[in-house]
Amino acid sequence: MKKVITYGTFDLLHYGHINLLRRAKEQGDYLIVALSTDEFNWNEKQKKCYFEYEKRKQLLEAIRYVDLVIPENTWNQKTSDIKEFKVDKFIMGDDWAGKFDFIETETRAEVIYLPRTPEISTTQIKRDLEAKKI
Ligand code: C2G
Hints:
The chain has helices at residues 15-26, 38-45, 53-61, 78-84, 102-106, 122-130, and strands at residues 3-8, 30-36, 68-72, 89-93, 110-114. By secondary structure, it is an alpha/beta fold. The protein has one domain: Rossmann fold (3-Layer(aba) Sandwich), CATH 3.40.50.620. It has a five-stranded parallel beta sheet with strand order 3-2-1-4-5. The longest helix has 12 residues, at 15-26. It starts with a strand and ends with a helix. [cytidine-5'-phosphate] glycerylphosphoric acid ester binds at residues 7-10, 16-17, 20, 36, 45, 72, 92-93, 95, 116-117, 120-121.
C-alpha cells in the first residue's frame, strides 16, 4: 500500500484544498492529512482559524480522498511522522516548493509539489466577505 501525507490548515475548506487532496490521493492508496492545530496556527503561522481544529478535522474526514487525519503541532514533526507511518510520498502545494526537500534526504519518501489552484484561498474568501463582494 502506497501511503501519501500532506500538511495544512484547511480552514474554510474550499475547492483549492479539494483539488490538492484529490491529486495527492491519486499518487497513492492511503492519504494522511496532518492538520494544523489551533495553537500551531496561531503561534507559528499567525493564523486565526474560523473553524476550530475539531470542526476542520470533521470536514476533512468527510472527504472521500482522506483516510486519516492527525494533528500537526510543530514544523519539525514531518520526518518522524513519515517514518512512523511508513509514508512513501510527501505532497504539498507548490507555494511550498523547495521548503521541504530535506525530507528526501532524511527519509525514503519522495517529495512532490503540486500546482496550487489559482484564485482561491481562505484569505481571499475572508477579504471578499469583508468587502461584501458577494
Ligand atoms: N492549496 C492549493 N491551492 C489553493 C490553496 C491551497 O493547492 N488555492 C494547498 C496548499 O498549497 C497546501 C494545502 O492546500 O498544500 C493546504 O493549504 P493551507 O490550509 O493554506 O495550509 P498551509 O497554511 O500552507 O500549511 O507544515 C505545512 C503547513 O501546515 C502548510
